[in-house]
Specification:
This protein has 7 helices and no strands. By secondary structure, it is mainly alpha-helical. It folds into 2 domains: about 5-40, no CATH class; about 70-195, Cytochrome Bc1 Complex, Chain D, domain 2. The longest helix is centred in the C-terminal third of the chain and has 35 residues, at about 160-195.
């Protein structure tokens, strides 16, 4: 049996590669015949290879007042959807109704009365159609959605900034519906008293 010269060439190349990869110096990279994922850089979940420096803020990040100063949020933040056309505002309000249905109605209920589907297991939230809440500015609600409250979890991570403003547009329609309903009930109570 005659050995082929190509066999010896392959054998010598393999031996060179094996010997080169057996270095014990940790400061030198391994010689690999085929690149693989074993030596690829790894990052933690939800991180990038180039993280921003600690304490940096993205250029398009919204800047909020300190979390514990609700009054400042209420005074300084205003809903940007009041500055668009009525048609765009109505589209945003409809999107806010869908977002409210998804994120808020399990606790607050579809009408904002605090009669959601989970209130039998958890303490019921306040009635959002109450006059006390109807008189609040939009910044107050933005704070509550972003930061949360004593029994309300924060929804700042689950919703984008523009989605929170859309939810507040829908809340305003719930306030109007709640005040109209209370006026009807108040009017019917007065007529009953007059008839007696």
């Amino acid at each position: 049996m005659r050995w082929n010269s190509s066999f010896f060439k392959c054998l010598s190349v393999s031996l060179v590669l094996v010997m080169a990869s057996c270095k014990n110096d940790p400061n030198q990279t391994k010689l690999t015949y085929m690149p693989d994922m074993a030596d690829a850089p790894t990052v933690k979940p939800q991180q990038d290879y180039l993280d921003p420096p600690n304490g940096s803020v993205a250029q398009n990040a919204p800047l909020y007042p300190p979390e514990d100063q609700v009054e400042i949020w209420e005074k300084t933040l205003s809903n940007p959807y009041y500055q668009v056309s009525k048609k765009s505002q109505e589209i945003a309000r409809e999107e806010g109704a869908v977002l409210y249905e998804t994120n808020c109605s399990p606790c607050h209920g579809k009408t904002g009365k605090g009669d959601g589907t989970v209130t039998d297991k958890y303490p019921p939230p306040p009635d959002l159609t109450n006059e006390l809440y109807a008189e609040r500015r939009d910044g107050f609600f933005f704070h509550k959605i972003t930061v949360g409250g004593p029994i309300m979890p924060s929804r700042g991570a689950e919703t984008y900034t523009h989605e929170r403003w859309k939810i507040i547009l829908h809340l305003r329609t719930l306030h109007k519906a709640g005040s109209a309903q209370s006026q009807e009930q108040g009017g019917s109570d007065e007529s009953e008293e007059e008839s007696q």
